[in-house]
Amino acid sequence: MFDIPTINRPAKTLLDGLAGIGTATASSELYKMGIRNPFIAGAVPHSRGKAIAGPALTLQFMPKREDLYGDDEYADREKQLHRHALYHVEAGDVVVVDARGDMQSGIFGEMMLTYFAGKGGAGMVIDGVIRDAAKAFALDIGYWMRGTSPNFHTQTTLMPHAVNVPIACGGTYVRPGDIIVADDDGAICVPIAYAERLLEAGSHHAEWEDFSRIMLSKGGDLRRYYPLAQDAEAEYLAWKAEQQHD
């Protein structure tokens, strides 16, 4: 019924590495690479303690027009494009939804989210809301979104429009196959072309921060250890070598 483009999925080692770096470090390093603001604004963490990184499957909503999308939710179930986004889910994927910041229409409910969890989906990043919150939050899924609603997805002013096309989610451009990194600080979009370089730069950043955190916890000089001053580099390298031999 619909010709949905596929995405290329990066190696799990790359995704695991980016998840470990976290959004704060990744955002800072992307800024240095020329990506000024990768943050998906409005997609608030609702799964505290979860940190994920996965390729983006995108879903775009548009303002509802009744001649294109009627009121009966199940009159033609295959017309529901939000289902088709889920049909393409593989383990570790992240569904990213441009729901136009709408606070009324629950983009997915318990049954759709159960299906997503069953296919191994890692998380949902939605510039909007979901429904069936109590049962949805019991699933092992990461949620970054604006909130919840009792309404179903087309009940008010929205209709699904396209799957796996470039979207604007929370003011950020997201292409299908870009990597979403999300944790307690929120969700960011990593352009796939930057991912390998980000992993290298972010891993180094995270490592010297580990050293600096230890030194600061011992009362070390903030001017020397954060950010790491050039004259502290030898001290850091000695610490790093010691860790590798432990």
Automatic annotation (TrEMBL):
This is Putative 4-hydroxy-4-methyl-2-oxoglutarate aldolase. Keywords: Magnesium, Metal-binding. SUPFAM superfamilies: RraA-like. CDD domains: RraA_family (cd16841). InterPro entries: RraA/RraA-like, RraA/RraA-like_sf. Substrate binds at G109, E110, M111, M112, R131. Its cofactor is Mg(2+); a divalent metal cation. It comes from the Bacteria. The keyword Metal-binding applies. Mg(2+) binds at D132. The keyword Metal-binding applies. Pfam families: RraA-like.
